[in-house]
Amino acid sequence: MIIVNFKKYVSGKDAVDLAKICKKVSDETQVQIIAAVQQNDLWNCQETGLECWTQKLELLDANLDGTLLNHSDYLLPWDELAIQTTRCTVVGIPFCVCVNSFQEAARASKFLPDYIAYEPRELIGNKEKSVSSEKPDVIQHLTSNIQVPVLIGAGIHSPEDIKIGLKLGAKGFLLATDVVKAVDPEKELRKLAEACRI
Predict the structure, then answer these.
(1) Which of 13, 20, 80, 103 is most buried, most CB within 10 Å of its CB?
(2) CA 56, CA 8: separation in Å to the nearest integer?
(3) Using 50, 70 and 90 to split pLDDT, how confident is the model at 62?
(4) In the chain, what are the domains?
């Protein structure tokens, strides 16, 4: 599983075009790919047939496929995170809580998210170092001790990063910069998705 967080990098027609790429790669590799898009782009991106989540919880809508909570662009105080996770649970919307440490993951797991995404902030956007290469011990500790599927993100940019993450027990990956800012997003996403199949 891969979640591609479009962040604030792409919107409008560019977001729809990237969602189409995600859908194509997902269909051809048989790897589940979800796009996390800006609220204004949600419905247009959903028209591509791709599962699309919002990057934060802005409104509870029957058409909402899911949402990220607490990722680096939209950090939340814990009391607000508790409110938003409760809203998602009541309405039945899948959600992923992003965390910066094992301690945050343990705390966030009490909200019963569908996923926890570990993304150490100091590695977000890094093109040379990744969470897989720099924090394997934390990933292993998370996947062994947190009873929620763990995704990893921050600096993921190579098939080797994906393979290491899978070996350490990650159930998926949260990507942004490496795909969204790539010269050839389809090529970049495809190589990472194909590594998920191994």
Answers:
(1) 20
(2) 12
(3) low
(4) 2-196 (3.20.20.70)
What's the DSSP call for residue 69?
E
Q: Above 60 in pLDDT, residue 21?
A: yes
- Which residues are tagged catalytic? 71, 119
Specify the amino acid at residue 104: E
Question: What pLDDT does 9 receive?
Answer: 92
Question: How far is it, in rounded angstroms, from Cα 29 to Cα 143?
Answer: 25
Cα–Cα distance measured from residue 192 to residue 190, given in angstroms and rounded to the nearest whole number: 5
Q: Torsions phi, psi of 172, nearest 5? A: 175, -175
